[in-house]
Design goal:
The protein is an alpha/beta fold. The chain has helices spanning about 15-25, 60-70, 85-90, 90-110, 145-165, 190-200, 220-230, 250-260, 285-290, 300-305; strands spanning about 5-10, 30-35, 50-55, 75, 115-120, 135, 165-175, 175, 205, 215, 215-220, 240, 250, 265-270, 280. The strands form five sheets. Strands 3-2-1-4-5-7-12 form a seven-stranded parallel β-sheet, with helices on both faces. Strands 6-15 form a two-stranded parallel ribbon. Bound molecules: nicotinamide-adenine-dinucleotide and uridine-diphosphate-N-acetylgalactosamine.
Length: about 300
Amino acid sequence: MVDAPVLITGGAGFIGSNLVDVLLAKGYAVRILDDMSTGKRSNLPMDNPKLELIEGDVADAALVAKVMDGCSAVVHLAAVASVQASVDDPVRTHQSNFIGTLNVCEAMRKAGIKRVVFASSAAVYGNNGEGESIVEDTPKAPLTPYASDKLSSEYYLDFYRRQHGLEPIIFRFFNIYGPRQDPSSPYSGVISIFSERVEKGLPITIFGDGEQTRDFVYVGDLVKILLQAIEAPDVEEGAINVGLNKATSLKHMLEALREVVGQLPVISYVPARPGDIRHSRADNSRLLQRFSLGQTTPMSEGLARLLGR
Ligand code: NAD
Ligand code: UD2
């Protein structure tokens, strides 16, 4: 396998560290740039000689240019992934979530590196497309600084594609779950919160009636797609939804959790969160056209792996 490392920004985080495992297993060398704001060393096999961790900020243009040196491709995941943090402090999060992307584009242009895989989000659609499966050309409606930074990042990546021959593959992730997702904030992914509470025997709160649905993707299935994107011979224009086109209600997800653990803690129902989306589901035709999804992980199995059962 090639010795030039793949650069993974945000590689010490939830999705990044799961990708690192797969890349190392395939013989890739991996270089991570991560400021360790939510990333953890304990997520990484630090004793692997093919892994290099550089602690620093993707908003630091000189550092990004330096770490880019000699890399074969980039997976740009570094971002403040908490939407609430972007609402509370838009200026700070803009540095990571947008300036970071621009720095990556510029450093790639100067270094002559072409391939970049980018983590955008279903948040760019806002409330549009609710109730149907969302196709990529659904009008965008970013409702938060987080979503605006993701959409702007997409536009800049596309500018660098047209102007400078970069090869961006832009993925709009729907709800990703699995091992190493941080459950510590009330705005963390619902599966990470519920799983942690089930393990600790703490009560679970459902906002609304529990019939709201999401398109949950197991992180192991996502990283297989990211790997294909790194290796794809060509890129095509246009962002790509990453979802299974499958709606799972919270009640159904809890039922699957119960099957894994045997018994659930007390569940209480409180009013829905203001602005909560009722149904979110990806039309994934473009994903299926361009990549192979293979056999995806059933929720019961994904939850069992998350809980180490
Ligand atoms: P995460 O918080 O675990 O990972 C983000 C990583 O980026 C962390 O390791 C963090 O320390 C690092 N980071 C943050 N700011 C940085 C900076 N300025 N410089 C360098 N490193 C920085 O979250 P995640 O869920 O693994 O998210 C990965 C990417 O996927 C993010 O871009 C996120 O917006 C996107 N995404 C995630 C989901 C999801 O369901 N988890 C959905 C849509 C999009
Ligand atoms: C996701 C993103 C969010 C924003 C939004 C845009 C995550 C973690 N959140 O929100 O940042 O981009 O998409 O559409 O990726 N819930 C409970 N109990 C809990 C926690 C959550 O009932 O303890 C509910 C919540 O009200 C929602 C559902 O679970 O109805 C899913 O919540 P989520 O925060 O995991 O994800 P989502 O899709 O609302």
